[in-house]
Amino acid sequence: MLMKSNVVQIPSVPPERRGLRLLHDIKERGVLYYLKELEQREGAFASLERRDGTTVLVNDAEAVRHILVENHSKGAPAEFLYPIVGKGVFLAEGEAHARQRKMAAPYFTPRSHVDMVVQMVAATHEMFERWQVNANRPTPLRLDREFPGLAFNILLRALFHETNAQTAAGMQGALKAIFEKAGDRMWQLIKLPAEVVYNVSSEFRQARRILFETADDLIARRREALKDPDFEHKEDLLSQLVKNYGISKEDQAILRHEVITYLVAGHETTGQGLTFASAYLSQNPQARERLRKEVDSVLKEADPTFDNIRNLELPEASRAADEALRLSAPAPIVRRRASQDIYAPLDDGRHLFIPKGHLIMVSPWVIHRRKQYWGDNAETFDLDHFAGDQQKSHLNLPFASGPRNCIGGPFARTEMIVVGAMLAARYELSVVEPESIKYRYALTTHPDRPVEAYVKARETYRAAA
């Protein structure tokens, strides 16, 4: 039993963290920077008042581990996504979530990554073929378009064995508008119900139509393909999803949401992560050189394989991926609602009491910048942050943690390693003014402006010449 003196109560919410004042400050600073400033002032935890009640921001690693692993019910920062993926594994609750996750789990095991790495390499080569037009020319590429497009192509190939570039292009535009709106709505005091917005706004009505038509087309073509006894992809994720759901209206709605969920979640995290990684490496020539030496020595102009990843033959590429994910934090804000009274242990031995029903906010983007966890250079890209085993601890939460962590986290990390190694072997990317790029919250972490880079083929790589 806990001693009363060892229990800390949530502090009352001061006036400046309520209502219009809170919204003004968040809009002026940006939500991620606001939460970071709050952590610097308050430390392990702080409270603020949103339209849906008191929220406690928890920055203490031990408390965060307890909260995420105990799997308290998911909050709803993404309510604007419910009309398009509300029945999918990302937002489902209880038995539905457990059933969907169990069905998908075999497709994200290390054994499944063997073929996935092959698909990652093939998709990256397609991108490189386009880049040859711009290589060594004074025309920059938009990395914030190139890498999300690559990530989308990899997902279509690796999970669904589809190679329709038009599918990727159409969905990307629709998702961009929806994600930005969802991020903004999280902090609005007054807002129309999501379903109303989709019905009355031509922009979002069209975005939803594109997503639904794309998913329905993928499903219909796969259902037809499965009639062929010789069809070679009967056991991939798309086939399993199609076979798992019936033809009832409810089953078809769930299936549609599931397909969109995997495309939505997968391309956003890795695409933006690769964009940020390129910016970090452009500012860090020593890290860039360490990475190049490794891929030149290990790969010897060959493509990376799953064995390279499994056998830990690319430690620098792995550290570069982990460090980019740490700083960019693809899931920058995670929310839970206390399903019961919580006594969350703190690093200092005390316990934080969070009453049942309270909203809890965890920001990996903030925690990844706490100096007590990552040292005085916590906000600097440094491969040596992962020289030990911190990537396995609860200090590093790029894909959250616990039963509701991102099921595709290992897939995304492998993708970052593979694409990063191939880039380092073949090209030099010079990002334009990388030091001026800031972070913008749109459910995931985005750069606040277009990210352009000049592409130069490395002379030492004959295949790129």
Structural features, described:
- α8 crosses α10.
- 44% of the residues are buried.
- The strands form four sheets. A four-stranded mixed sheet has the order 2-3-8-5. Strands 1-7-6 form a three-stranded mixed sheet.
- It has helices at 19-29, 31-42, 61-69, 82-85, 94-104, 113-131, 143-160, 165-185, 194-200, 202-225, 237-244, 249-282, 285-298, 306-310, 315-328, 364-367, 371-374, 409-426, and strands at residues 7-9, 45-50, 53-58, 141-142, 334-337, 342-345, 351-354, 359-362, 427-431, 439-442, 444-447, 452-457.
- With 465 residues, the chain is an alpha+beta fold.
- The protein has two domains: 1-72 and 332-367, Uridine Diphospho-n-acetylenolpyruvylglucosamine Reductase, domain 2 (2-Layer Sandwich); 76-329 and 388-464, Orthogonal Bundle (Cytochrome p450).
| Number of contiguous helices | 18
Question: From the coordinates shown, what is the CATH architecture of the largest domain?
Answer: Orthogonal Bundle
Specify the CATH homologous superfamily of the largest domain.
Cytochrome P450
Radius of gyration: 22 Å
What fraction of the residues are assigned to beta strands by DSSP? 5-15%
Helix content estimate: 40-55%
